[in-house]
Amino acid sequence: MATIRPMRPNDLLLISSTNLDHLTETYNISFYMEYLTKWPELCQVIEGPDGNIEGYILGKLESSPYAPPLAPYDPATTGVAYPHYLPWHGHITALTVAPSARRLGHATALSSALERSSDAASAWFVDLFVRASNDIAKELYRKMGYSVYRRVVDYYNDGEDAFDMRKPLSRDKDKGTIREDGEEVRVTAEDVW
């Protein structure tokens, strides 16, 4: 049986098989180490019964680098008047499962762990970016309760758009941090932050 555990620095030498998918974004070691040192509770691996790493998630807690224009933040007021402001939230930077371990519930288990940690930290929602062409990932996230908040034009280095997908957490009782028509809302990468 596979188990989720905190990611350790030496795991970075063992995750290459999880990054074999052409849709998986990969990073250099210093990027992973920054996450491990700043947000260790949001960096998890799923280890198979044979000890091999079958998947991992990197996440962080963040908000816009400036105070909310209308404080305290409320999606019904600040969120409407300042739609590009990002309140305190969890972010999935990377979630990947080795091709040989897919369809076993690993992505859902890893995401749920990050969502619980974000909820415990009083985040409003968890968000992530996914390639507009990655239909399999978009459907997976929809099944996990995520919805498209906006389309970020030319987000990836190759010019492909991204969908900013969000899942509200318990702090967002009125679901004010999500919207119905997110695929129609287009923003630039500069608007995201």
Automatic annotation (TrEMBL):
<dbReference type="InterPro" id="IPR051646">
    <property type="entry name" value="NatB_acetyltransferase_subunit"/>
</dbReference>
<dbReference type="InterPro" id="IPR000182">
    <property type="entry name" value="GNAT_dom"/>
</dbReference>
<keyword id="KW-0808">Transferase</keyword>
<feature type="domain" description="N-acetyltransferase">
    <location>
        <begin position="2"/>
        <end position="170"/>
    </location>
</feature>
<dbReference type="Pfam" id="PF00583">
    <property type="entry name" value="Acetyltransf_1"/>
</dbReference>
<protein>
    <submittedName>
        <fullName>N-acetyltransferas-like protein</fullName>
    </submittedName>
</protein>
<dbReference type="GO" id="GO:0004596">
    <property type="term" value="F:protein-N-terminal amino-acid acetyltransferase activity"/>
</dbReference>
<dbReference type="GO" id="GO:0031416">
    <property type="term" value="C:NatB complex"/>
</dbReference>
<dbReference type="InterPro" id="IPR016181">
    <property type="entry name" value="Acyl_CoA_acyltransferase"/>
</dbReference>
<keyword id="KW-0012">Acyltransferase</keyword>
